[in-house]
Amino acid sequence: MKNYSYFLITMFLVICVSVSAQSSDFAEGEIKVYTTSENSNLRLSETQTLKFVDAAQPLETEISVFVNTSKTYQTILGIGGAITDASAIVFNGLSSIKQQELLDAYYDIEKGIGYTLLRTTIHSSDFSPESYTYVTEGDAELKSFSIAHDKEYRIPMIKRATKTAEGTLTLYVSPWSPPAFMKTNGSMLRGGKLKPEFRQNWANYYAKFIKAYEAEGMPIWGLTIQNEPMATQTWESCIYTAEEERDFLKDYLGPTLEKEGLGDKNIVVWDHNRDLMVNRSKVIFEDKEAAKYAWGTGFHWYETWTGAAPLFENVNRVKEAFPDKNLMFTEGCIEKFDSEKYQYWPNGERYGEQIINDLNNGTVAWTDWNILLDQNGGPNHVGNFCFAPIHADTITGDLIYTPSYYYLGHFSKFIRPKAKRVGSAVSRNVLLSTSFVNDNGTMATVVMNKTNDLIKYTLYINQSEVTLDIPAHSIQTLIY
């Protein structure tokens, strides 16, 4: 009895010390502030080191950011961008010094922003110099299948990116269209559908691609079924209704990958805008035979083409309805390239606003589109020129860093794979914020100010607080 009483007292003291430590673990700690700000030279710059103090009662007259470490949510898979044919071709034309600068800027955690996620295409997309596939036209049996095309530019760049990232890149792939002979319109361009008689051949094509890339020493984490399956584009595109995508997944793609020993690949459905993601997820995930093959839902940010506001709430609605499935942002870029707007600040702010909202609604991975384009916003074989976070002037050989690069870096550099989102809220809508605890125990809180005014705010975490200033049109990452 005496030993039992001693055990109870000891456990009580351990619990008390644990609770006390949790409530005051930041009181004596430091917080480092990294800032990117318009009309200044601050670009992911370490601007302050501050100390926490014991927290007082927050006031309604203050602007506050609240972090609750006792509430954890999704675990981060990675943040990154796409290496397309366009990116690889532009990269190949750079000097060796500028090539290494570009790789370090994206994939080195110390010298750059530490990307950990990479998307690439299954044969051509609009950001290719021309349309192409890996088989000769009409070869339904895929006997001519070869990825020789990709070995010239794309595969070498992916390998160098992976090496720079010290082998930590999560690689996934997406098709824009089946070969022309497999489609109802006889073309890789302008929509059309996959002919029913070629569904098995097309499923075999994915398996061959994955095996060919993995034979090159590039492990494939997963794939999306079809890029933008409801868009009839002037470039490579293919239409699937929700039911058609569901049935292709459960009857052909899923079983084929399993049969080919690729059942561990993560399959992402939808891969299109937030506007219809609730419907697409419902149709596929409520079918048990289809859902068992699906890792989660991918989505883009282009629903604003209709003039509507971004539909961030749809991301959360999918998460609420299907909590066992994951959410991945698979593509976004600034459309309509204009070289006069390289340093247009709202482009960076668009990234910050989108990423914060997507993360706060349960997204586990966030993927930008092309990591590199030329001074014309290409190459692109249908004139669909866009912005990238970094452009290369192929005449001067210089790299041009846009605000988008730095805004992305405030997330990718500090919120690492295996980080868990924790509870976070703001007391005024003049600020946006999200918070994560990394696998090594460090905390990262991102705070964004889109207003024209410098804002003083107080960060509250557990029983500690610290007061900071964030300049107008700025983003900060707080590390503590």
Descriptive notes:
With 480 residues, this protein is of the alpha/beta class. The chain has two domains: 30-74 and 422-479, Immunoglobulin-like; 78-416, Alpha-Beta Barrel (TIM Barrel). Helix content is 29%, strand content 26%. The chain has eleven helices and 21 strands. Strands 2-1-21-18-17-16-4-19-20-3 form a ten-stranded mixed sheet, with helices on one face. Strands 5-6-7-8-9-10-11-12 form an eight-stranded parallel beta barrel, surrounded by five helices. The chain has a three-stranded mixed sheet with strand order 13-14-15. Strand 17 and strand 18 form a beta hairpin. Helix 10 (345-360) packs parallel to helix 11. It is globular. The relative contact order is 0.18.
Structural class: alpha/beta
CATH architecture of the largest domain: Alpha-Beta Barrel
* Strand runs, count: 21
Count of spatially separate domains? 2
Main β sheet profile:
10 strands, mixed
- Give start-end ranges of low-pLDDT stretches: 1-24
Helix content range = 25-40%
Distance, first to last CA? 45 Å
Give the class-level CATH name of the largest domain: Alpha Beta
Counted by DSSP, the helix tally is: 11
Looking at the structure, the CATH topology of the largest domain is: TIM Barrel
Oligomeric status of the shown chains? single chain
| C-alpha-based Rg, rounded | 24 Å
What's the CATH H-level superfamily name of the largest domain?
Glycosidases
Strand content: 25-35%
- Biggest sheet, spatial arrangement of strands: 2-1-21-18-17-16-4-19-20-3
What does the average pLDDT come to? 95
- Shape designation: globular
Organism: Leeuwenhoekiella palythoae
Pfam families: Glyco_hydro_30, Glyco_hydro_30C
Keywords: Glycosidase, Hydrolase, Signal
Family: Belongs to the glycosyl hydrolase 30 family.
